[in-house]
Specification:
Layout lengths: L21 E4 L4 E4 L14 E4 L19 E3 L9 E2 L3 E5 L7 E4 L5 E3 L3 E6 L7 H8 L2 H7 L13 H5 L2 E4 L2 H39 L16
Family: Belongs to the type-I restriction system S methylase family.
Keywords: DNA-binding, Restriction system
GO biological process, one term: DNA restriction-modification system
């Protein structure tokens, strides 16, 4: 949903919601939690997962953390300031600033340097689902662009993110919006699974129907193909 210029209401509304959306700074409701500079020489093959920028991937509508090529670390005392829990929303601060993912595993993980974690500090203003949908939106991504610095690699600071303005509806309207968008996300996931099944069916059909190094016997075909 987008808001018309000069108005604090979106172009589309659910029935029963008529109030203007209010403009506030993200800093009034969230903070970007910092990370820990782990020593690469101490990485392990097992232990506590470390979430790096390379693990953050929201491509192809996939909001979840990419757990491929994950690295591990021994458990650390006083880990509270850089621990990641299920449903936490993460954002890349370097490389591809703004790229975001949701951590959806039951086990805890650690936050590597230049990865930020959204911490909601006022649950009366925004809920986690609405924040996630907003961060994944083109509206948020476009707001970040003017603040990205271009050096050896692109960067954005947590303060610049926290200082962004956001238009907010009531918590009830946030829940309504998120419920609808979640249904669409589920439909996208189902279609992606169907696509993979059809691709596998095609590969199987090609192996049977096209000539190759191994010729199929006449009995390999039947009316049920």
């Amino acid at each position: 949903m987008t808001c018309k210029e000069g108005e604090n209401i979106p172009e589309a509304r659910f029935k029963g919601f008529n109030d203007d959306w209010r403009k506030e700074k993200l800093s009034s409701m969230i903070k970007i939690q910092g990370c820990y500079a782990f020593k690469s020489s101490e990485f392990k093959k097992s232990g506590i997962p470390i979430i790096r920028i390379s693990n953050i991937s929201n491509t192809d509508n996939n909001m979840n953390i990419n757990m491929k090529e994950i690295i591990y670390y021994n458990e650390i005392e006083n880990e509270k300031s850089f621990i990641i829990k299920k449903s936490d929303l993460l954002i890349a601060l370097s490389g591809a600033p703004g790229k975001s993912s949701i951590y959806n595993l039951e086990e805890k993980a650690y936050l590597n340097q230049r990865v930020g974690l959204f911490k909601i500090i006022d649950t009366k203003k925004i809920n986690n689902s609405f924040l996630s949908q907003y961060v994944f939106s083109s509206i948020f991504q476009n707001k970040l662009k003017p603040f990205i610095t271009r050096g050896v690699q692109p960067n954005i600071s947590p303060k610049d993110i926290e200082n962004l303005d956001i238009l907010l509806p009531s918590l009830k309207e946030q829940e309504k919006i998120c419920g609808y968008l979640s249904l669409l996300d589920e439909e996208i996931d189902n279609l992606k699974k169907q696509k993979e099944l059809i691709k596998e069916m095609k590969i199987g059909a090609m192996q049977k129907l096209l000539p190759g190094e191994v010729r199929l016997s006449k009995n390999a075909f039947n009316e049920n193909i």
